[in-house]
Amino acid sequence: GESVGLHLPTLSVQEGDNSIINCAYSNSASDYFIWYKQESGKGPQFIIDIRSNMDKRQGQRVTVLLNKTVKHLSLQIAATQPGDSAVYFCAEHLTGTASKLTFGTGTRLQVTL
Amino acid sequence: NAGVTQTPKFRVLKTGQSMTLLCAQDMNHEYMYWYRQDPGMGLRLIHYSVGEGTTAKGEVPDGYNVSRLKKQNFLLGLESAAPSQTSVYFCASSYFLWAALANYGYTFGSGTRLTVV
């Protein structure tokens, strides 16, 4: 989930298990959302996006679920691998005259062998 | 490889010193951005550019200046560094303003870790 302090929340999962990372967004008018993966010492990498008119979108080993009622989205990673260890964060895009992209604080995923 | 390149990757500055961070992209993107990333906080926008010769302030612009003299380059300057500017800085670029969907190519560089002592 979102961090409110200096330290990122950490999710520790065993290799092969499924991971679920959560994100709360702030603006009900946001028109799409993106999940990023950030490995240590690297820049954020796009994983998957979902438009606000969708509830679910699947990619390769990843699924994003969107619950607009509670302004929540989640990223599910199937059969988690050591290479999935990273910080994951969501971003929301607001369209219109006040268009902007806002990033969440992130969750650290640790994959144990 | 196509992408966003940031230089330098690491830098230590003394309080009051100045420096310039360089961002270069080879994707012919019109829009470029500078962010800072601090522990426990999301990426925060410092300045952005909507085209060659134009810049605009973001969420946290104080203490920074930027220039976009060439379309492919976006420079971030610190005129008098302060310890509060210790952070990791990321540059990004995109085809359309704020457009981060997969086919719009919102691409980040690998970052510059700056420490001000």
Description:
Chain A is mainly beta and 113 residues long. Chain A is built from no helices and 10 strands. Chain A has strands spanning 10-14, 19-24, 32-38, 45-51, 56-58, 62-67, 72-77, 86-94, 100-103, 107-112. In chain A, the strands form 2 sheets. In chain A, strands 1, 3, 4, 8, 9 and 10 form a 6-stranded mixed beta sheet that branches. Chain A has a 4-stranded antiparallel beta sheet with strand order 2-7-6-5, with no helix packed on it. In chain A, a hairpin with a 3-residue loop joins strand 5 and strand 6 (62-67). Residues 1-6 of chain A have low confidence and may be disordered. Chain B has strands at 4-7, 10-13, 19-25, 31-37, 44-51, 54-57, 65-67, 73-78, 87-94, 107-108, 112-116. Chain B starts with a strand and ends with a strand. With 117 residues, chain B is mostly beta strands. Chain B is globular. In chain B, a hairpin with a 2-residue loop joins strand 5 (44-51) and strand 6 (54-57). In chain B, the strands form 2 sheets. In chain B, strands 2, 4, 5, 6, 9, 10 and 11 form a 7-stranded mixed beta sheet that branches.
How would you sum up this structure in a few lines?
The complex is a heterodimer of chains A (113) and B (117). Chain A has 113 residues and is mostly beta strands.
Percent helix of chain B, as a range, is under 10%
- Please state the overall shape of chain A, judged from the principal axes of the Cα atoms: globular
The biggest beta sheet of chain B, please? 7 strands, mixed
Helix content of chain A: under 10%
- How many distinct helices of chain B? 0
Average of pLDDT of chain A: 92
Question: What is the helix tally of chain A?
Answer: 0
Average pLDDT of chain B works out at 95
Q: Which descriptor suits the 3D outline of chain B? A: globular
Structural class of chain A: mainly beta
**pLDDT below 50 for ≥5 consecutive residues: which ranges of chain B?**
none
